[in-house]
Amino acid sequence: MPEAARIHPNRMKLYEKLADEITEAVRRGVFAAGERVASVRQASQQHGVSIKTVLHAYALLESRGIVESRPQSGYFVRDAAARALAPAPAAARAGRKSAPPPVPATVDVSRLVLSTLRSIRAHDAVPFGSPYPDPSLFPWRRINQYANAIARRHASWNLIDDLPPGNPELIRQIARRYAENGLPVDPGEIVITLGATEAINLSLQAVAKPGDTVAVESPTYYAMLHAIERLGMRAIEVATHPVDGIDIDALAKAIARQKIAACMVMPNFQNPLGFCMSDERKRQLVELLAAHEIPAIENDVYQELYFGDTRPSTLKTFDTQGLVLHCASFSKSLTASYRIGWALPGRYRAQVEKLKFLNTLTTPSVPQIAVADYLRQDGYDRHLRHLRRVYRQQASIMSALVLRFFPVGTRVSTPRGGYVLWVELPVAIDSMRLYQAALERGITVGPGMMFSTRNDFRHFIRLNYSYPWTAQAEAALKTLGELATAMA
Amino acid sequence: MPEAARIHPNRMKLYEKLADEITEAVRRGVFAAGERVASVRQASQQHGVSIKTVLHAYALLESRGIVESRPQSGYFVRDAAARALAPAPAAARAGRKSAPPPVPATVDVSRLVLSTLRSIRAHDAVPFGSPYPDPSLFPWRRINQYANAIARRHASWNLIDDLPPGNPELIRQIARRYAENGLPVDPGEIVITLGATEAINLSLQAVAKPGDTVAVESPTYYAMLHAIERLGMRAIEVATHPVDGIDIDALAKAIARQKIAACMVMPNFQNPLGFCMSDERKRQLVELLAAHEIPAIENDVYQELYFGDTRPSTLKTFDTQGLVLHCASFSKSLTASYRIGWALPGRYRAQVEKLKFLNTLTTPSVPQIAVADYLRQDGYDRHLRHLRRVYRQQASIMSALVLRFFPVGTRVSTPRGGYVLWVELPVAIDSMRLYQAALERGITVGPGMMFSTRNDFRHFIRLNYSYPWTAQAEAALKTLGELATAMA
């Protein structure tokens, strides 16, 4: 691959790639603090790149504070870098369980979210504030080739063939994938939707009505709040632990106190906290809700983006009552612009299918079949392995550098999957002010208030680490840190 | 064009095309009753087709009862055919104004509609019951070529570029088209949606809330009823005249009697009645609603399918208060499977745009840009002229043959545009029984009950005439007529 200037992550400059690999090696303890890394010549041979590329990479690593050069001796891992890149001490990680007041609230966060998204679109900077994964990591050309081939095979297309529940082959492929991951599902339960957004909307509409109260995590992913807002329901935020997930005792208390029509959660790689609930806690949650006949809407859009060895279980895994409405999509792992999602609505299947028909009539078939063809014929697993590796690596780089650049007292989440980092700033910092100041410098962040109905999390920001870790990204993060420090 | 066996209307067999042209000429009085049509040799020269094709065409016309051959003399227009094809007498056309009771009702028609659509999909017969136009008349390949070219120009696609209100170039093209048709609109008002279905849903949700009462035509297009059903509202059906449209006095009375939150109408080529409201009546309707501050949701999906010389006006044309929410799509005129619709929501624009974001996040960009490219570069007007000619011709053929095949007392609508015929059978006939009996013979019809909240219109059916008028279609219509006759 020529070393031409490149922008996208899967086309990073070679020296950036090399620098990232060495960073990752330091993080993993391959090179310990004070240890010498490979010489320029060795690295050139090991990685099959030019001397110039290695020199570039080492210069970048120096600027990142990961290695230092000692004259006549070579490059050595800095003590501070090894500490920063190693799993952070408890104080700088995790943080406390949230403590929202036990009062349902009406929801109106979409204005803030939409204006944030617009500002991201309007700016050309590194989009730390984006909720979407870097699309350049997705196999856009392959999927489009399938779509084009399908379209060409037909002289015309009858809308009537697109009626819910969706294309049978895609449904089969989705069911196969769950089965391969040890989570058998009934293909007959699947309803194809326009992204997980529609799946979540329809699921909520199937189980609750305007004015009802819905329990959510705190902080909660605003897509959940949007669904509640859209239907004129009320949200009650439930204390949520940054590692363990929703507090089941707190939820039990909320249920005892008032009628809860549904519970919306994201047990795997929650956005923004990044936790993955344990099997035991998932089971407890399902059992608590089942005991009160409360449907659970499970947003599992990051299901393929795990950093561990296997795909985690879902609430669905532990559901014996058909009370879990499981929602997912390909938007975070394969193609966002095709808008293919699905619901596994349990006992509410008929209602969800009918609502799908009423809401948008059909999900276009060609994109459905293109995804099915890709799943059947192409290297989805290989693609996902690459995606997970990149995200995992970029998560650790960003975590380390946030702790380095941001003011004392800043804490970061430890994402177990996905592509967002939750950053707790010193309480004095108003993240809306930080958002504005950053925007003026062409940098976006996700203000914490988007994740609450009650303007909570004012000193939190969400950062997206799916984009390539370039010098520009690093400079932007440094600027952010300086802005935050000035506000602290 | 070779005379190979062809199925689709724009690929009708040549002899079928010729037969249709002669039928149309008879309908228009070019050939009067008893008059001799062109000789086989003349017709062969005039139409540039083989002798064999003309013989085929004349045989088909004979079987249709339009011409008769007289030995040694040639082919003559049958008296009965000329009568049947000429504009029907008032008794067999038009029909009376509907007279629904003035009571709002909850809505639950989607089950019947969905099961009808499924039965159409499951059968291979001529789909008289389909609500969708024959897709083979659409420029599927051209649109797909544009889509493929757009996809290839990009290495990836960022979802963030697809945020509402939609692709700016498509919005510009839509506004240009309205302007060319003498209906200037503000591009800044347009919100792109997933088909008119979503536009109607969002418009209704923007102006009314669950439990509210919405005024609709009687019969009304069930897409309107679906929107009402989806949001848990109630419908009040208003008397509607088969030629003049919704009865404005009856609507005024309904408004005087109860709180009406919105009025949903289809002033142009209403489905199923096919009328086109006059400018004067449109103005009166807009003024009545404005006087009571009642928003009007205008479904104008058939706007391009007029049989007259020009595109008719819309309610929007007469709206000075921003109270008209105008909804339309490309699904009936260009491509159904791309699911591109839009709303012009007047003073409710901000709400509709927000609801779009909450409902489905985005409308995929590539289909939007493909349609915009087609509109800008390709022969949309030529395509539409062809479509209108085919529909107009097939409307008159089907009307004539329904009157010929169906029992005495059957009346048909006189569609002024669109592609559906509304057929009133003798009152003794239950169209659900006819629907079932036809289904057993692989023929579908649209049962009248789909167009009412109260199981009205039991002796009505809707027939789709967009599909090619083949011998098979004709035989199917004849069978339908026989089934109806047996039930009368």
Summarize the structure.
The first copy, chain A, is of the alpha/beta class.
What report would you give on this structure?
The structure is a homodimer of 488-residue chains. Chain A is of the alpha/beta class and 488 residues long. Chain A folds into three domains: 9-85, Arc Repressor Mutant, subunit A, CATH 1.10.10.10; 108-135 and 382-487, Aspartate Aminotransferase, domain 1 (Alpha-Beta Complex); 139-380, Type I PLP-dependent aspartate aminotransferase-like (Major domain) (Aspartate Aminotransferase, domain 2, 3-Layer(aba) Sandwich). Chain A is 42% helix and 13% strand. Chain A is built from 16 helices and 15 strands. Chain A has helices at 14-27, 40-47, 51-63, 79-85, 110-122, 140-153, 168-180, 195-207, 222-230, 248-257, 279-291, 349-360, 365-377, 380-405, 431-440, 471-487; strands at residues 67-70, 74-77, 105-106, 191-194, 213-218, 234-241, 245-246, 262-265, 296-299, 324-329, 340-344, 411-412, 420-424, 446-447, 460-464. In chain A, strands 3, 4, 5, 6, 7, 8, 9, 10 and 11 form a nine-stranded mixed sheet that branches. In chain A, strands 12-13-15-14 form a four-stranded antiparallel sheet, with helices on one face. In chain A, helix 2 (40-47) crosses helix 3 and helix 7 packs parallel to helix 13. The longest helix of chain A has 26 residues, at 380-405. The radius of gyration of chain A is 23 Å and the shape is globular. At the A-B interface, helix 5, helix 6, helix 8, helix 9 and helix 12 of A face helix 5, helix 6, helix 8, helix 9 and helix 12 of B.
